Amino acid sequence: MKVIHTGDWHLGKILNGKSLLEDQAYILDQFINSMHNEQPDVIVIAGDLYDTSYPNKEAIQLLEKTINKLNLEMHIPLIIISGNHDGKERLDYGSRWFERSQFYIRTRLEDMNKPISINGIDFYTMPFATINEIQDYFSDDSITTHQQAVSKCLKYIQQSINNENINILIGHLTVQGGIRSESERPLTIGTVESVEEDTFNMFDKVMLGHLHHPFSINSDFINYSGSLLQYSFSEVNQAKGYRRVEIEEHQIKDQFIPLKPRRELEVVEGDYEDAIHERLAIKNKENYLHFKLKHMSHVTDPMMHLKQIYKNTLALTNQSFEFNTSIYQSDEEIQKFEDETIIKKFYEEITDETLTSAQNDKLNYILNDFLNGGDA
Amino acid sequence: MKVIHTGDWHLGKILNGKSLLEDQAYILDQFINSMHNEQPDVIVIAGDLYDTSYPNKEAIQLLEKTINKLNLEMHIPLIIISGNHDGKERLDYGSRWFERSQFYIRTRLEDMNKPISINGIDFYTMPFATINEIQDYFSDDSITTHQQAVSKCLKYIQQSINNENINILIGHLTVQGGIRSESERPLTIGTVESVEEDTFNMFDKVMLGHLHHPFSINSDFINYSGSLLQYSFSEVNQAKGYRRVEIEEHQIKDQFIPLKPRRELEVVEGDYEDAIHERLAIKNKENYLHFKLKHMSHVTDPMMHLKQIYKNTLALTNQSFEFNTSIYQSDEEIQKFEDETIIKKFYEEITDETLTSAQNDKLNYILNDFLNGGDA
């Protein structure tokens, strides 16, 4: 029995104003090709299929095209749950017809204790739900944390679980100690969102979505698939792919299989002049780039100049600012300077130039005559 | 062979700020009940299932629930085309799975010459397309009118049609002479949108959507189903329902079957005081009402007062204005009056009061002293 575990596709994602749909279509083609070789018994997609609850029509078409190939053309059963980015009602649309082809979409808490059985293995689904939704579902106001909410759900599932079987949980949540990325939207604001690992002990295997790092957690039975692509510059150099889970008797093997994207995210540091004259080492000019550059404050619209050479430049940070902060170690040191000195040093750091004599006169006038009320 | 013809459901429609979803759910329940009795061989929905290309989740759920009952529970084949209000890509989502249960969604010009055969009858589909889309599809810039566009499509269909069969066209367009309603969005701006009746002669039957009046056109083979509900006050007193089309040998019978909605649209004319004291004849206090009232200019926020009694009041017109226009038959008559007389008469008409002596003095001052430059 072979199960493929993927998740966090975030179709329709826009990163710094750039739609990643083309890259998503490319990587999904790679995924489909791999599935031709893998010939899995089922594919699990653990939530966040879309990046937004109002996906645009291109994202919808890409999902449908991909799922159509996997399910109707290649006849692979699919289990999908909704994540915190998905609109449940929209994702669920058509599910009653889809089930007839073993394409299962689960978005409702009502279904969590009804496993989907494939080749004798029971897949339980816990789509993303807010603490409030779980409170409402169990009519239990005492649930105020994710830990309590998930424990409640699992205790409920436990009543109907068959321990003789291999039981797999599919969820979209944060396990304690999991490594975060910037592209994950918090599940709630102001509450600890993580759930302890041993909460899930009743399962032989837990296939999760939400955290984007494929090795987010170090556990022998809980795994994140990781996201389809690098979705923030905090994920630079992070491999992305899917997990191949092989189950034989009660032995479960889990292996991460990387996929090669069309473009990666890359951070490039150095001097502006070196960047613009292509003297900086860049892995792939087509990559989505975040430049962190020094000595560029004299340039008008440096982003435009960079984009003329590196068209997929998505971000630019003026590294001089960070340099500044290392000169002055604390506010106290700065306060030792005269106002005039602070302004002059600031100007020099930012522009790499000193004040002209006209600027000097103006500064004197403002500081001495105007602000301090002295006579001209 | 029994075919049910419906269309222009406009799910998610908002009329004067009021969502009609509850009424739409009610009437669709009636429709489903009727289908239990009718036991049709197929149901045709001729476009505009949604009111907008971005339907909200409640509208999506209502469509899915309705279609689920008709198709999966009652096992009735369905043919749906997209109208000018529908977003093709969204409506089409899932269609490959749906077709396996004889639920056919057609949104593409590519499919227009591929009939759906049910019980030996060929259903051709012509989803709504703009003139530009049809130009592009045929790579023919000479197409500049709806007449040319539809003729081109039908000539293309004609190449593959089997005249031995009974051939039915399902379309979403305007036939010449069709009665319009205010709730239909024009297909194009600035172009005649109607198509001549004899363009369709190759078909035994044409089932149309777009015009909301179920008797929009007087033809022996072309029919509009009419909309699911009254969607504008221009449709007051208009029956709404579906068409039952019975085909035996080459005999085709078509009959309009009305459904009873939860609320209708109703226009109420009279005096404001009579309305507010419930002295006006109103068919149903729950109806969506458009009041056209006289003698209300002295009232602050009359709409609020009316809504306290008639909670589904959607529109209010001050009828006094229209009354005025009937007093003065032409501009010329008005010009015979002195300025002072015109102003006094206008004030009296609007407020049902005469000017106070202070107002009279002010008017005199403005007209004689200020405007005409006389001395005070």
TrEMBL record, chains A, B:
Protein's UniProt name: Nuclease SbcCD subunit D
SUPFAM superfamilies, per database record: Metallo-dependent phosphatases
Example GO molecular function: exonuclease activity
Species lineage: Bacteria, Bacillati, Bacillota, Bacilli, Bacillales
Domain Nuclease SbcCD subunit D C-terminal: 262-349
Function: SbcCD cleaves DNA hairpin structures. These structures can inhibit DNA replication and are intermediates in certain DNA recombination reactions. The complex acts as a 3'->5' double strand exonuclease that can open hairpins. It also has a 5' single-strand endonuclease activity.
Domain of life assignment: Bacteria
Record bears the keyword Kinase: no
Family designation: Belongs to the SbcD family.
Keywords: DNA recombination, DNA replication, Endonuclease, Exonuclease, Hydrolase, Nuclease
